Amino acid sequence: MSGNPGRFDDFKYATRVRALNLWVQIALGAALFAGLNFLAARHYANFDLSRDGAHSLSPESVAYVKGLKEPVEIYAVFGPDSENPEAARARRDLRTLFSQYEYLSEKHAPVKARFVQAHIESARAEALARRFGSDIEDMAIVACGQKFKKIPFSDFYSSEEGKPPKFRGEQLVTSAILNVSRGGEQKVYFLKGHGEMSAKDSSPSRGLSEFAAALKSRNYSVEELDLGEAKQVPQDAGLVVIAGAQAAFLPREIDELRKYLINSNGRVLMLLSLGPLGGLEDILFEWGLMSDDKLVLDSSGDYESSAGDLIARSFPQTPHPIAKYLVDIGMPVQFGSVRPVRPDMGAPLDDSLKVDPVILSGPTSWAETSYRRAGIQRYDDSADLPGPLPLGIAASRVGGNDLGLTIPGGRLVVFGDENFAANSRFNRLGNSKLAVNAVNWMFDENSMLNIPARQLESYSLTLSMNEIAGLGWRFMVLPAAILAMSLFVWLARRN
């Protein structure tokens, strides 16, 4: 028995249904493609697979960008010579760098970067000139509210004879962001008047000009302070540095430093020399610390060969924030004549005080009492201290509680050597990182780490026309094969 033919048996109707089905599939595919792109544009992650991390920011920059409370604008303004090789290189490097800041910035405090061709976008260039001054060409400008900082393109590159250039972009831009976004200026005072090492001295052995320059590049204000002339530690002092004092302090000066630490919740960084402490031992005792007049030696022979400096590569099992970066990258520190700095077991108990070692001597080290004696030094268990020993220690106090909130107290960091921060050693091994990170920790900026310049590497491929043509034919093989197979299938289905 035969039935009536269905509508789907009608060729024209079935053709229309297939066509409609095809268009619905195309529409759904387009909607899926658009939806995936919409989601990808708003929810995505970057992965830096480059060998030297060229497409990611350092932990220091990441911490500060994520902590921004106000929007930051970055402009790169190019002059008439924007097509020359140097400008093209700067445009490429800065575009890569600025995109990383934009990617990391929070929505409530975004970092926005813009590139301006001054000779083409004249209206925008004039508006920037009214805001930032006329000298804006070939400049990067970092602005937050009314504060701004200009960085010439030439400053982004440093080079040494016989070596490839290095790109200092992240270092300079992060420094500028800190400068324009920070509410107040942090002042670091270097104490003088007792034979201390000077921040203005550029001599290799007793100068701290390299240390001071590193602090200035991180937007700290550096000044000197003579407590013999000043009545007290200035109220705007964020940190006082005492580096290698050679003469004794007056009782009044010690009292002013004690009051600054306790009453004003101040911060002091001590770099101690060998010999008498000249009154500083009273401050150390009050903070649960002591420093024996002994020289730390190591029987393993872990010394820098030319100067005989002790290389310290041991750290506490739980690294202190000051030294965590050194631990992460496996970087030791080169000390000169270093003495131990350790907790004072005879100091009064204080629940508000926290004492943590920062860096240690090795397990085969000891603190030699008779270090001034000529000849070979050997460990004497009756007079010397066995290692490992703290070479640097950090002490902090809780200032108190108010309305349920814990108020930060003073902070004291003591290293048993002043030589590691001297100009001749500052840029060796992890010395600069240890010194600068100690200052950062004082200001609760322990996430701030050193940002090295990046080595610029360029690769070129030189091919003849015949080699280019050969590569072209090879790259065409696979598409041609797919096209041939498609034609074959289409012809087979038609037949």
Fold and architecture overview:
By secondary structure, the chain is of the alpha/beta class. It has a seven-stranded mixed sheet with strand order 8-7-9-10-20-19-16, sandwiched between helices. Strands 2-1-3-4 form a four-stranded mixed sheet, sandwiched between helices. The protein has a three-stranded antiparallel sheet with strand order 5-6-21, with no helix packed on it. Strand 7, helix 6 and strand 8 form a beta-alpha-beta unit. The radius of gyration is 32 Å and the shape is elongated. About 1% of the residues have low confidence.
Biggest sheet details = 7 strands, mixed
Distance between the termini: 34 Å
How would you state the average pLDDT, rounded?
82
Q: Show unreliable segments.
A: 402-406
**How does the overall form come out from the CA principal axes?**
elongated
Strand line-up of the largest beta sheet: 8-7-9-10-20-19-16
Helix tally? 12
Radius of gyration: 32 Å
Share of helix, binned: 25-40%
Question: Structural class per helix/strand content?
Answer: alpha/beta
Q: Report the count of strand segments.
A: 21
Q: Per DSSP, what share of the residues sits in E-state strands of 2 or more residues? A: 15-25%
